[in-house]
């Protein structure tokens, strides 16, 4: 059974993922400036498909589960930091 993270755990994971985005993708902005509900693709944070692949690899390494490029849910998983954090919370092994 999957546990739903508390609001504090969710916010902490969102901050952690924002820091991972900035460091892994060499973004020129502070992690705390990333709105957790802002889209990661296109007009939001401005990531492209290559950035998402790099981010997926880093998330997989850090949290111990595989994010597959052929997963039909990727568009939803990577919609925002919040949706990514929810997915990580449900699947992480570390």
Report on the architecture of this protein.
The chain contains four helices and no strands. It is an all-alpha fold and 94 residues long. It has one domain (7-91): ACP-like (Non-ribosomal Peptide Synthetase Peptidyl Carrier Protein, Chain A), CATH 1.10.1200. The mean pLDDT is 91. The chain starts with 6 loop residues before the first helix and ends with a helix. Helix content is 52%, strand content 0%. The longest helix is centred in the N-terminal third of the chain and has 19 residues, at 7-25. It has helices at 7-25, 49-63, 74-77, 81-91.
What is the molecular shape? globular
The percent of residues in helical segments reads: 40-55%
Order of helices and strands: HHHH
Q: What is the CATH class designation?
A: Mainly Alpha
Instruction: Work out the number of β strands.
Output: 0
Overall pLDDT: 91
Subunit arrangement of the protein: single chain
The fold-level CATH name is: Non-ribosomal Peptide Synthetase Peptidyl Carrier Protein, Chain A
Name the structural class. mainly alpha
Largest sheet: none
Residue stretches low in confidence (pLDDT < 50, at least 5 long) are none
Which CATH architecture would you pick? Orthogonal Bundle
Rg over C-alpha atoms, rounded to the nearest angstrom: 12 Å
Q: How many helical stretches?
A: 4
Could you name the CATH homologous superfamily? Answer: ACP-like
């Amino acid at each position: 059974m999957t546990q739903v993270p508390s609001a504090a755990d969710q916010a902490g994971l969102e901050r952690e993922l924002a820091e991972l985005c900035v460091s892994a993708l060499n973004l020129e902005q502070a992690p705390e400036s990333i709105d957790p509900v802002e889209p990661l693709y296109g007009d939001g944070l401005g990531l492209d498909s290559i950035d998402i692949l790099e981010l997926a690899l880093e998330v997989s390494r850090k949290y111990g589960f595989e994010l597959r490029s052929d997963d039909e849910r990727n568009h939803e998983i990577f919609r925002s930091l919040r949706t990514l954090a929810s997915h990580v919370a449900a699947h992480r092994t570390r």
